[in-house]
Amino acid sequence: MAESGSNVEIVEGRLREVLTPLGFEVYPLQVGWYNAVLPPSLHLGHPSDTLAAVVLSAPAMFESSFLPFLRSQACGSVRDPIDQCVAHYLPRAVAQCFPGQQVEISYDYEMLPNRKPKFLAQTAAHVAGAAYYYQQRDVADNPWGNKKMFGVCVHPRFGGWFAIRALLVFPGVGAAGLEQRDPPDCVPTREDRIRLLERFNTCWQDWSYRDVVAPAERYSEKQRAYFSARPADRLALLRDWGLLRSEDPGQRASPTPAEPGSHKG
């Protein structure tokens, strides 16, 4: 395995040059950081010092990537259009940045044959230092007892106005010199953590949990309208906006809405 100290800088720099204008953010990590906080059944099957990168979508992604993607008529509408958009741009960015190199791309919506996710998006974002993953265990003397409360990531600049889209793994590329940094603790008080988790678990549809910290940027009105619509209604909305071809017999929307814990949208 190559272990040049410049590996991370080269990979991160190339990806950011291509993906930042499209509204994405890139955060490198070692596979071992991710595996260290999860049971073996969820481990990534690579050596601990293998380089990986988490890809997030910032609020700008909707206007910078998604709407142009739809206007290009590249969307086939056979699954979630946002997922199609991400799956359109990321492989092209990887091929442009690393021609001929093996890079494994796992998307946040992908499942293994055993129905486990290909990767845990919020865990990956946390260990990469991208966004703090607030969970029930982060609240001292929590008021919920044994009631299950889903956790949620908070971005230091965007609060909850972002999404975790993919994990890139670079087999054979070492990142032994990469220093792990904790994600910024944007919600340090017990009271605010309680408020965050309660809003995310009980009224996530009203967007209020996203403003737990003052964001530098929020979703645009058009983006909010899209994500506020039921998944079954989103294709019709895009057609009303003139951004999608008339429905073909095989077209369908994603059958289920995002739920607490998924951090979709």
Automatic annotation (TrEMBL):
<dbReference type="GO" id="GO:0071949">
    <property type="term" value="F:FAD binding"/>
</dbReference>
<keyword id="KW-0560">Oxidoreductase</keyword>
<keyword id="KW-0521">NADP</keyword>
<dbReference type="InterPro" id="IPR032037">
    <property type="entry name" value="MMACHC"/>
</dbReference>
<dbReference type="GO" id="GO:0031419">
    <property type="term" value="F:cobalamin binding"/>
</dbReference>
<dbReference type="GO" id="GO:0009235">
    <property type="term" value="P:cobalamin metabolic process"/>
</dbReference>
<protein>
    <recommendedName>
        <fullName>Cyanocobalamin reductase / alkylcobalamin dealkylase</fullName>
        <ecNumber>1.16.1.6</ecNumber>
        <ecNumber>2.5.1.151</ecNumber>
    </recommendedName>
</protein>
<keyword id="KW-0846">Cobalamin</keyword>
<keyword id="KW-0285">Flavoprotein</keyword>
<dbReference type="GO" id="GO:0033787">
    <property type="term" value="F:cyanocobalamin reductase (cyanide-eliminating) (NADP+) activity"/>
</dbReference>
<dbReference type="GO" id="GO:0032451">
    <property type="term" value="F:demethylase activity"/>
</dbReference>
<keyword id="KW-0170">Cobalt</keyword>
<keyword id="KW-0963">Cytoplasm</keyword>
<feature type="region of interest" description="Disordered">
    <location>
        <begin position="246"/>
        <end position="265"/>
    </location>
</feature>
<keyword id="KW-0288">FMN</keyword>
<keyword id="KW-0274">FAD</keyword>
<dbReference type="Pfam" id="PF16690">
    <property type="entry name" value="MMACHC"/>
</dbReference>
<dbReference type="GO" id="GO:0005737">
    <property type="term" value="C:cytoplasm"/>
</dbReference>
<comment type="similarity">
    <text>Belongs to the MMACHC family.</text>
</comment>
